[in-house]
Amino acid sequence: MDIIRALKEAGEAPISGEDLGEKLGISRTMVWKYIKALEENGYVIESSPGAGYVLVSPPDKLYPAEISIGLDTSIIGNDIHYFETVDSTNDVAKKMGIRAEEGTIVVAEVQENGRGRKGDPWISPKGGIWLSVILKPSILPAHAPRLTLMAGVAVANAMRQFGVDASIKWPNDVVIGKKKICGILTEMDAEADHIGFVVIGIGINANVPVEELPEELREGSMSLSSIKGERINRAEFVQALLKSLETEYLRFKVDGSTKILEDWISLSNTIGRQVDVITPHKIISGKATGINPDGALIVENDEGVHEVIAGRCIYK
Ligand code: BTN
Predict the structure, then answer these.
(1) Beta strands in the chain (DSSP E)
(2) What is the span of the domain harbouring residue 195?
(3) Mutate to test the pocket of ligand 1, among 122, 134, 184, 199 (most ligand atoms within 8 A of CB)
(4) Cα(198)–Cα(194) distance, rounded to whole angstroms?
């Protein structure tokens, strides 16, 4: 990590093996070995005899160094666990949960058993951003859904910073128009009145061309690269996302969820629409007029005002 930081700090100016060694307190031979190892991991490094090394380009990987160098947060992302392939980053995070420091991140290039809400599979090929964040808030377990709303706001804001016009569709999908670009799965370890930890799993179709998704998902999905017409720098996006999450989380800890709810409503493209909400028992049709602090959708129709805790929302 330190050698990558030193190369990045030097920019386009070559830095000699001797200077690198001095900076890091290691021999020139060790510097050379580290450089070789970085090259094996996909870093392109130019080395000119006599002048030194220049980092030409980092690999398109979410290595901890790529996320943490330049990351402007104080809690989220202090500890980053990286995997090329994993079953599910949420499962790894849940195993680490109690021992992990608050803000620990688990990130993977590919998930072989990614999980969505309601036990659905979550397709997680190379090019996406599949990550889980461990939080340890002092709130009642019943209030944990507020953290899911918070994550939706953080993701939508990070995308808007990247020039993508993201909105939130109830219950908590980040969408471009009607097409889903990100899903959030919050899980927790809790007793009746105490949360051990919360895992917020965030799955973003980043550099995943929509046409490469399974056929049944193409119609309703979008990705950052498809909407922008070019691949995005995933590491930079993750940095913006972690910063956005931390801003919302610190606000949540100090002020509670009022501002988050306001932001959620203004980022949402559900509120104000005529919707059908399909619940296990019935379909509720009417106008979506708001959400309550725990994320239930408020739907108004001739029969009255309904608070729908869970369901599938269809825009009319
Ligand atoms: C949804 O159904 O909308 C939620 C999808 C959540 C997917 C993310 S990807 C990272 C984390 N690991 C998982 O297995 N799921 C979540």
Answers:
(1) 44-48, 52-57, 80-86, 105-111, 129-135, 167-169, 173-176, 179-191, 194-204, 274-278, 283-291, 297-301, 304-308, 312-315
(2) 64-267
(3) 122
(4) 11
Domain count, the chain: 3
What pLDDT does 49 receive? Answer: 83
List pLDDT tens digits, range 91-142: 999 999 999 999 999 999 999 999 999 899 999 999 999 999 999 999 999 9
> Cα–Cα distances in Å, from 143 out to 25, 138, 146, 223, 268?
49, 10, 6, 31, 20
Counted residue by residue, the chain has a size of: 316
In 3D, which of 97, 56, 287 has the Cα closest to residue 189?
97
Whether 114 is in the pocket of ligand 1, judged by its Cβ within 6 Å, is yes
Indicate whether residue 184 lines ligand 1 (CB < 6 A).
yes
Q: How much is the average pLDDT of 48-58?
A: 91
Taking the C-alpha atoms of residue 74 and residue 71, their distance in angstroms, rounded to an integer, is: 9
CA 107 to CA 61: how far, in whole Å?
10
**Domain at 180, CATH number:** 3.30.930.10
Amino acid occupying residue 121: P
**Residue type, position 93, single letter:** A
DSSP secondary structure code for residue 253 in this structure: H
The answer to whether the CB of 117 is under 6 A from ligand 1 is: yes
What separation in Å is there between the alpha carbon of 62 and the centre of ligand 1?
17
Give the CATH number of the domain where residue 29 resides: 1.10.10.10
One domain, residues 190 and 300: no
**Mean pLDDT computed over 232-248:** 98
- The answer, yes or no, to whether any atom of ligand 1 lies below 6 A from the CB of 203, is yes
